């Protein structure tokens, strides 16, 4: 019900229509009939100060993050968010705040005026909860301090469990149904608000809102169990794996003349088996350089094998997902998950994958044939030996062919500078490096970029955590820590009309501080907006 995808919808309808800048500039550049027809490429514009700062900061390794020199603050500039326990206190405060807002929505059926505000309040409730959940999701994956990650794990599960309870809240469902069934109220909603209301409605239906109470409770418990098992499974996949044990004679003929020679001499001198951990430099070298198939097979199997515990967690997760799907009347978890997605059904996904396979199969077969010929020539086997998974790196070309035109090195700094220039030409938006306050970020590698509109100034922030480090998840990820939405029409002070006592008011103070951060009036736009905050996580090698 309270999906993050709905939180950006409630924007003012009268905003100015966006015009693609490139089209406008193209009209001005139209040549007259007598003009020459030869195409002339203009020289690239010189680097601005912001361009130089971005290139220097991303391409030159710093031991510490540039600091603004101001007094210490907390995570993302929240002055109170300085310890793991403060994170838990924020979650508790947010839950109190959410309960007050939920109570207000429950009573909306008794007030016609309040009924017109229900969709806005549901959107606020979604943003209130997801603001903490999204932050917890980032911290538990990116923070190097185990105390912070454990705190974030606790907060994430606690907040998601409450959200699952709301997803099966019959009173909220009845209020929303009253809004959708009232012609006057529904007609008063703008297109974005109507779509938001329908998204909430579909999410209620998907969560088994019409089930008996005992089955709704089962839905909540299964959803929480799936979250826990999913996290446990991911933690297990990131844990270290048993090493491969390589015999000294299996290292004969290593093509690598540096590390390979050292390892071979070490094995010959000690006459001991070589212990190679998956993902290590030694493992990568063996996969590319060992002419013997057996050491490559051992390294590959070590990297891609699972323990019985990991398999058990996966089986428990799949069982819980299947039980949840059957609880809401779906044949599988895939059917349940895809119903409101673009693909719509597992059959459509399978059709797409099969079509993709049919398209790529001829190219893959040609590539495998080439590798098979190389293996045949190397091992002097019968024609077209089978290419195993551990053969690929060894028999593939050592490096891609050089481009026909010499190109400058593509670095992180030049990529970010290029993106900034592209955004400026398309949208009038640039990226500008800015300093952080001590305590604002979770690791010295993290860089902060302002997103600057040429007319409106700063309209959001990007935190870039781009370099690999021990304990950091592999791959790339994008986290929306704070969404953009209009806030001056929230009518939030009336949420407190039924506050129980002074203790309840004190309990929500942290939540109010958290909610009121990152708000600003944007020049040229009516109202006050919550500015977005996003985080990019990658694992590039530090330059």
Automatic annotation (TrEMBL):
<feature type="domain" description="Peptidase M3A/M3B catalytic">
    <location>
        <begin position="287"/>
        <end position="543"/>
    </location>
</feature>
<comment type="function">
    <text>Cleaves proteins, imported into the mitochondrion, to their mature size. While most mitochondrial precursor proteins are processed to the mature form in one step by mitochondrial processing peptidase (MPP), the sequential cleavage by MIP of an octapeptide after initial processing by MPP is a required step for a subgroup of nuclear-encoded precursor proteins destined for the matrix or the inner membrane.</text>
</comment>
<keyword id="KW-0496">Mitochondrion</keyword>
<dbReference type="Pfam" id="PF01432">
    <property type="entry name" value="Peptidase_M3"/>
</dbReference>
<keyword id="KW-0862">Zinc</keyword>
<dbReference type="GO" id="GO:0004222">
    <property type="term" value="F:metalloendopeptidase activity"/>
</dbReference>
<dbReference type="GO" id="GO:0006627">
    <property type="term" value="P:protein processing involved in protein targeting to mitochondrion"/>
</dbReference>
<dbReference type="InterPro" id="IPR024077">
    <property type="entry name" value="Neurolysin/TOP_dom2"/>
</dbReference>
<dbReference type="GO" id="GO:0005759">
    <property type="term" value="C:mitochondrial matrix"/>
</dbReference>
<keyword id="KW-0378">Hydrolase</keyword>
<dbReference type="InterPro" id="IPR024079">
    <property type="entry name" value="MetalloPept_cat_dom_sf"/>
</dbReference>
<dbReference type="InterPro" id="IPR045090">
    <property type="entry name" value="Pept_M3A_M3B"/>
</dbReference>
<dbReference type="InterPro" id="IPR033851">
    <property type="entry name" value="M3A_MIP"/>
</dbReference>
<dbReference type="GO" id="GO:0006518">
    <property type="term" value="P:peptide metabolic process"/>
</dbReference>
<dbReference type="GO" id="GO:0046872">
    <property type="term" value="F:metal ion binding"/>
</dbReference>
<keyword id="KW-0809">Transit peptide</keyword>
<dbReference type="InterPro" id="IPR001567">
    <property type="entry name" value="Pept_M3A_M3B_dom"/>
</dbReference>
<protein>
    <recommendedName>
        <fullName>mitochondrial intermediate peptidase</fullName>
        <ecNumber>3.4.24.59</ecNumber>
    </recommendedName>
</protein>
<comment type="similarity">
    <text>Belongs to the peptidase M3 family.</text>
</comment>
<keyword id="KW-0645">Protease</keyword>
<keyword id="KW-0482">Metalloprotease</keyword>
<keyword id="KW-0479">Metal-binding</keyword>
